[in-house]
């Protein structure tokens, strides 16, 4: 099963770096979409089916936690999985994410950390043999 | 705040971030060539929380395009905007990893967007009191990191 992934980060370089890591991981990728903040990510969700959202916390306009809370109110997103990828070091904030049922990856990260977390959450085979280029890319925004 | 721990964390976080995010191999010592490299870019990021302050980073040498290309996974020369974005993200990651050392694991901080300059002109020094610094050699140059706090440090081992 190929995963449709939404990458939400205000840094265009970081979005591309995360996408590069996903490709290195060998996670089977379907459609890849990107957004520069939570508000733009909500717009993406209106038009695209997403299985997994990789979300930064500190972003302008709408931060990552606000986005996750808003997305969970959308009926079509009830099965959407979230992983926060952030520099956040506060145990308090990480505990808050845990209570929200949101997984967490600390920046900087190793590809095997990302692969392991996604495989555990989604059950998608992370075999290196299944490295796949994304079928379609939308919303590759420059900020 | 344990100043020795802070200096060690600043150093180790810089090394780890340039290795894992930038795919560059920092040198523990700065050689003569690296020490003579000119300023090429700088970044300053402000944090707010139990402590307020700034982390400033100055890049000397010509490795920012390589660092950016590594992050992007592209061979084409990166644009200046992408280089600024890459340096800003490095600043963000290093600062975010340093903050628990300043105020403990429970403290919650907010980080402003990094202020990045791709320029050989020295940036203005951040406000506040200088607290700690470290220098890491990379490729043909070096990275200088300085931490400033808005309020004086009242405890330390140094």
Q: What would your notes on this structure say?
A:
The complex is a heterodimer of chains A (143) and B (158). Chain A is built from 5 helices and 6 strands. Chain A is of the alpha/beta class. A 6-stranded parallel sheet of chain A has the order 5-4-3-1-2-6, with helices on both faces. In chain A, β1 (3-8), α1 and β2 (29-35) form a beta-alpha-beta unit. In chain A, α2 (38-47) runs parallel beside α3. Chain B starts with a helix and ends in a 9-residue tail after the last strand. Chain B is 35% helix and 27% strand. In chain B, α1 runs antiparallel to α4 and α3 crosses α4 (80-103). In chain B, strands 1, 2, 3, 4, 5 and 6 form a 6-stranded antiparallel sheet that branches. Chain B is globular, with a radius of gyration of 15 Å. The mean pLDDT of chain B is 89. With 158 residues, chain B is of the alpha+beta class. The interface between A and B is medium-sized, with 24 and 31 residues.
């Amino acid at each position: 099963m190929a995963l449709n992934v939404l990458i939400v980060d205000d840094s265009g370089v970081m979005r591309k770096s995360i996408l590069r890591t996903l490709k290195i991981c060998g996670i089977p990728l379907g459609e890849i979409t990107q957004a520069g903040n939570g508000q733009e990510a909500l717009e993406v969700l209106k038009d695209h089916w997403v299985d997994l959202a990789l979300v930064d916390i500190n972003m302008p306009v709408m931060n990552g936690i606000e986005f996750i809370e808003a997305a969970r109110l959308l009926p079509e997103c009830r099965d959407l999985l979230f992983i926060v990828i952030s520099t956040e070091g506060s145990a308090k904030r990480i505990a808050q994410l845990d209570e929200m049922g949101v997984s967490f990856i600390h920046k900087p990260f190793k590809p095997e950390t990302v692969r392991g977390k996604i495989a555990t959450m989604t059950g998608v085979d992370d075999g290196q043999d299944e490295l796949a280029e994304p079928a379609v890319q939308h919303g590759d925004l420059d900020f | 705040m344990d100043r020795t721990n802070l200096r060690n964390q600043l150093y180790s976080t810089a090394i780890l971030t340039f290795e894992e995010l930038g795919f560059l191999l920092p040198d523990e010592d700065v050689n003569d060539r690296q020490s003579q490299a000119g300023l090429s870019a700088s970044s300053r990021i402000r944090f707010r929380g139990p402590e307020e302050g700034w982390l400033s980073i100055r890049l000397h040498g010509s490795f920012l395009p390589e660092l950016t290309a590594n992050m992007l996974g592209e061979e084409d020369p990166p644009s200046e905007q992408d280089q600024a974005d890459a340096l800003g993200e490095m600043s963000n990651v290093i600062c975010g990893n340093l903050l628990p050392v300043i105020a403990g694991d429970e403290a919650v901080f907010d980080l402003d967007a990094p202020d990045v300059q791709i320029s050989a002109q020295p940036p203005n020094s951040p406000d506040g009191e200088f607290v700690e610094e470290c220098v890491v050699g990379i490729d043909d140059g070096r990275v200088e990191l300085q931490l400033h706090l808005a309020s004086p440090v009242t405890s330390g081992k140094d």
